[in-house]
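User: Sequence recovery, please. Input:
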C-alpha cells in the first residue's frame, strides 16, 4: 500500500506597487522543477497569494485545512533586504498599509488571531548555522514590517507556530536571480524539514 507523503506548502505574493513581478513568487514558482519532492519524499504545493488582506484571510486557512502541511513556508519581497531574511515573529496589530484592493484593516488589527505577538517554534538560528555549510548566508529579523508579509505570517503562526516559517527575499538583481532565490528557499525547506523530522 502506498503511503501518503507529507505535504509542504510554499507561497509567494503576486504583484504590487513597484513589484510588477514579485520576486517571491518568481522564485517559489520554480520550486516544483527543482527535485524537492523526490529528495525529501514530500508532496509540494505552491500558491501565489494576492497582496490583499481578505485574500490572505480566505486562502491561508483553506491551505491549512486542505493539506495539513508538515511545513508552511511563506515568502515575500523586501526592497530593503540585501540577503534572504528569516523572520522570527509576527504581530497582531499595527497594520496601517493599504493593500492592492485599496483596503485597510479596522484599527490596524488582524481579525483572525488572539495573541499579540507570536514567534515561530522552528529554530531559525540552527537553520542559519547549517546553511553556512552550503555557502548560503541568511539573516534573521524580528521585524517583518507590518504589511501583508507580516500579516500572512501571523495568520499561519496563529494556526500552527510549530510548522510555519516566513522569509523575505531581495528584489531580483545581479546577485539574486529568481533561480538563486529559489535555491535558497529549497535549502531552507530542507533544513527546516530535517529539524522537524528530528523532533
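Assistant: Recovered sequence (199 residues):
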Amino acid at each position: 500500500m502506498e503511503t501518503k507523503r507529507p505535504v509542504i506548502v510554499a507561497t509567494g505574493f503576486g504583484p504590487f506597487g513597484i513589484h510588477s513581478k514579485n520576486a517571491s513568487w518568481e522564485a517559489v514558482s520554480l520550486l516544483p522543477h527543482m527535485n524537492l519532492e523526490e529528495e525529501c519524499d514530500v508532496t509540494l504545493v505552491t500558491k501565489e497569494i494576492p497582496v490583499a488582506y481578505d485574500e490572505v484571510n480566505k486562502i491561508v486557512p483553506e491551505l491549512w485545512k486542505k493539506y495539513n502541511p508538515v511545513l508552511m513556508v511563506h515568502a515575500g519581497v523586501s526592497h530593503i533586504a540585501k540577503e534572504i531574511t528569516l523572520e522570527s515573529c509576527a504581530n497582531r496589530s499595527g497594520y496601517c498599509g493599504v493593500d492592492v484592493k485599496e483596503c485597510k484593516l479596522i484599527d490596524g488589527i488582524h481579525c483572525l488571531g488572539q495573541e499579540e505577538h507570536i514567534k515561530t517554534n522552528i529554530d531559525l538560528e540552527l537553520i542559519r548555522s547549517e546553511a553556512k555549510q552550503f555557502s548560503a548566508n541568511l539573516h534573521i529579523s524580528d521585524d517583518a514590517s507590518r504589511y501583508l508579509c507580516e500579516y500572512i505570517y501571523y495568520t499561519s503562526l496563529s494556526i500552527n507556530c510549530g510548522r510555519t516559517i516566513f522569509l523575505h527575499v531581495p528584489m531580483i538583481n545581479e546577485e539574486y536571480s529568481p533561480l538563486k532565490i529559489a535555491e535558497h528557499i529549497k535549502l531552507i525547506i530542507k533544513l527546516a524539514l530535517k529539524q522537524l523530522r528530528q523532533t
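Helices lie at 23-28, 36-40, 53-67, 124-131, 148-159, 178-198.
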